[in-house]
């Protein structure tokens, strides 16, 4: 089963990601999309990020491959969760200056409305930051910021 | 390990359900087993799914998608077996605990159970693992809302029963 490995560019363990360096550069250039370019999954779902003053707003543009329910159609719940989780990771890297990419410990999401086939947005709030664990709250909406499509909370290991 | 599909007669129906979801086709999810009690889905490794570039470990969001899909398919299978009807249940909430990172270049398996089906809500739990289910990567608990079978369109019903040819929202032309 494991013999059918593809020979495309496989990152090796020796390539250590300089998280603080990347964040510093992104802050200087005021281009936080730069952060996401290092993460293949962020590209896979097509997410973007923009900074407005002290706030980061994450965007998940409508994309056919992200559809789950074909009847509505609606974005796959897992994609919304992945988008929100990635948003929280970037939020922590930028505002907490973590040395490594934070590792998710648990992720709990409540779906409030169907995420329709259009652009989605997310914002994060770091509820508590301890020495080893951070608690982050993430909200996701589409046309109206007050009508959330999902809300989530997550714990991350940071070091 | 190939399991005789006759042993888990809902496998094909669950695979057709998963194939209706564009994101799942993109991830290449395969239903290995499905019964009224459980669903087992394989997620192949791909470098596109990496969330931690320095180790090649896939993103937690992919595991969440696998868990959501596995739990959702378990609900569809359980309802199909119990009521001989097709319902699509939207996820109400999902909690995933990550015990350890998934090893790169290996498939992840998602095993989901619908352990209680009430008139309005379906309760599910799932485990993601690689080598052994006793050494899990993640554990999930999710609840799903039940909606009436009339909400399922004819085209979708036919697709799940294996009667329609192209997946919904897709024309015959290939990209």
TrEMBL record, chain A:
Limits of the Thioesterase domain: 75-147
Domain of life: Bacteria
UniProt cross-references to InterPro entries, sorted A to Z: HotDog_dom_sf (IPR029069), Thioestr_dom (IPR006683)
Gene3D superfamilies the UniProt entry points to: Hotdog Thioesterase
Protein name: PaaI family thioesterase
Native source species: Shewanella cutis
TrEMBL record, chain B:
Annotated keywords: Hydrolase
Coiled coil: none
Keyword Hydrolase tagged: yes
CDD domains listed in its UniProt record: PaaI_thioesterase
InterPro entries in the record: HotDog_dom_sf, PAAI_dom, Thioestr_dom
Residues in Thioesterase domain copies: 56-132
Keyword Hydrolase assigned: yes
PANTHER family reported in the protein's UniProt record: 1,4-DIHYDROXY-2-NAPHTHOYL-COA THIOESTERASE 1, BLR7284 PROTEIN
Name of the molecule in the record: PaaI family thioesterase
Organism: Shewanella cutis
Lineage summary: Bacteria, Pseudomonadati, Pseudomonadota, Gammaproteobacteria, Alteromonadales
């Amino acid at each position: 089963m494991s013999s059918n490995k593809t020979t495309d560019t496989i990152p090796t363990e020796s390539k250590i990601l300089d998280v603080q360096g990347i964040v510093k550069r992104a802050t200087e250039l005021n281009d936080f999309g730069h952060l996401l370019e290092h993460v293949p999954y962020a590209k896979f779902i097509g997410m973007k990020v923009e900074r407005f003053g002290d706030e980061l707003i994450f965007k998940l543009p409508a994309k056919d491959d992200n559809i789950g329910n074909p009847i509505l159609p609606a974005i796959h719940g897992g994609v919304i969760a992945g988008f929100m989780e990635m948003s929280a990771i970037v939020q922590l890297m930028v505002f907490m200056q973590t040395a490594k990419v934070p590792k998710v410990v648990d992720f709990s999401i409540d779906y409030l409305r169907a995420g329709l086939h259009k652009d989605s947005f997310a914002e994060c709030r770091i509820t508590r930051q301890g020495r080893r664990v951070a608690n982050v709250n993430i909200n996701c909406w589409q046309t109206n910021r007050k009508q959330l499509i999902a809300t989530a909370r997550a714990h991350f290991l940071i070091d | 390990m190939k399991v005789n599909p006759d042993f888990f007669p809902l496998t094909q129906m669950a695979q057709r359900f998963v194939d209706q979801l564009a994101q799942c086709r993109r991830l290449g999810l395969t239903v290995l087993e499905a019964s009224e009690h459980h669903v087992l889905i394989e997620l192949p490794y791909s470098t596109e799914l990496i969330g931690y570039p320095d180790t090649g470990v896939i993103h937690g969001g992919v595991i969440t998608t696998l868990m959501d899909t596995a739990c959702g398919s378990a609900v569809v299978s359980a309802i199909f077996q119990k009521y001989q009807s097709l319902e699509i249940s939207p996820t109400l909430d999902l909690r995933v605990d990550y015990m350890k990172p998934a090893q790169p270049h290996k498939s992840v398996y998602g095993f989901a159970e619908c352990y209680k089906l009430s008139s309005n809500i379906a309760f599910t739990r799932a485990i993601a693992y690689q080598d052994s289910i006793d050494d899990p990567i993640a554990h999930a608990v999710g609840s799903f809302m039940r909606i009436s079978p009339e909400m399922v369109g004819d085209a979708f019903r036919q697709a799940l029963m294996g009667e329609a040819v192209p997946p919904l929202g897709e024309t015959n032309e290939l990209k």
